[in-house]
Amino acid sequence: MSMSTRKAVGLELTMVLGMDSVHICGRVSGIYGPVPDERILRNIFRDAEPAKIDILTQSTEGCTFRARFERNRSYLSHVRDVDVRLERAGGKCRIVAVLQQLAYGQLPELVPGTYAFGTATAEDGLEVDFWVTEHVRDAVLLESIWQELDDNARSRLVCLVVDAVKKLQQLDMDAKRTRYELWTTPYMDFLSGVRAARDRRRPTSRVRTCEDGLEGIDVTSAVPDLVPVNISRSELTSLQEQVVLCHNDLEPRNILVQRGRAGHGYKLAAIVGWDKAGFFPFAYEYCVKDALLGSENSSFSWYALFKQQTACLVPRDSANTRLIRAMNLIYQSRKVASTSLGALAQDKWIQRRGLARHPDVRVGWTRPADGKPPKDIQ
C-alpha cells in the first residue's frame, strides 16, 4: 500500500491474496494508525493465507483485526480464527502482550492466549508490531446484554469477575519471570501510575517527592479548595509491598460472555482489554472505578456490585486510604479545570442519577437519599 493510499480519507480497502478475495471491513484515514496490507499479512501468517480480514477497531495507534482461515488453510495447523493487533513499532503493544501473558498464566480459561508476537514491515516501509491472540468464539460483550439480566444473574457474573481478580493477585511476585517483567514495564511501582493519572497537557495537580526521600510524597492541586494529601515514606513502603497484577479497566465493554447450555443464562467467557494493566496495590484499581463512572462505564449497577464485592480486597489502613484520597484529588482537579464535552457529559450523567460521593472515600459514589436505585443508560 503506497503512502498516498494510506493517507486517503474514507478509502474502503479490498485486497486479493492469491486467489482469495480479502475484504477489510473498515476505512483508512490520515488520523488512523497502520492497517494490514499484503506484505504485513505475509510477514504475520507466512504460508497460511487468511480467507477474510475484518477490522474490528481503529485508532491513532493502530488497529485490531480478525483473520479467518479456510479449513484446509488453517493457522498453526488447527486454528481457524485469530485476533491480531497492529501498532507502530516501539509502542505499548509489546508491554500489553507481556502483561496479558502473565495474566493468562493465572487465568488460562479466561484470558486469550498469545500465538505470536513480532515486527513486520508494511509496503510503504512502516515498521509495525503485531500480536496474534486466540479468538473467543460465540461470545458477546457483557455491555451488550447487561440490561436484560436480572439481579441474580448480574451478581453471579460480577462474583465470577471478582474471583478472577483474586486469582490475578495470587501471581507470585517473587518468581524470577514475574520480577523481570515487573521491571520491564512502565509501571514498575504504583507511583508511576499515580503520576500517569495527571493531565499532561494542562496539569491541575502535582506529585512531589520530598528531596530528602524521608517524608514520602505530597499530592497537591491547583484548585484551592482541594486539600493536599501526603503519603509518608512508611506508607509508600507498605503500598509497594501490596503490589499485585491489576487489569485497571474491568468494565462490561472488556468482558466477554457466552450463552449457557441449552441457552440458559450467560457464563463468563473472557477478559480482554489489558491496555491499562500493570502492577499496583489493588486500591488503585478500586479507586479508578470512581473516575470511570459515567464516562467509560455507564452502568451504576455494575459499578456498585463491583465495589461491594471487592471492598474486602482493600486493607483498611492509612496507606490505602491516603492513596485513594490522592487519586480522587487528581481526578477532581482534572474535572474542575476541564471544559471537554466528555467531562461535561459525565457530570450530567452523575447529576441525572442524583449520585453523590460518600463521606468514606472507600465507598465512592452512592445511591440517592430516597433509596430509589439510579437508572442505568439503556
UniProtKB/TrEMBL annotation:
InterPro entries: AGP_Transferase (IPR051678), Aminoglycoside_PTrfase (IPR002575), Kinase-like_dom_sf (IPR011009)
Location of the Aminoglycoside phosphotransferase domain: 94-285
PANTHER family assigned to the protein according to its UniProt record, in alphabetical order: AMINOGLYCOSIDE PHOSPHOTRANSFERASE DOMAIN-CONTAINING PROTEIN, AMINOGLYCOSIDE PHOSPHOTRANSFERASE-RELATED-RELATED
Descriptive protein name: Aminoglycoside phosphotransferase domain-containing protein
Organism: Lineolata rhizophorae
Taxon lineage: Eukaryota, Fungi, Dikarya, Ascomycota, Pezizomycotina
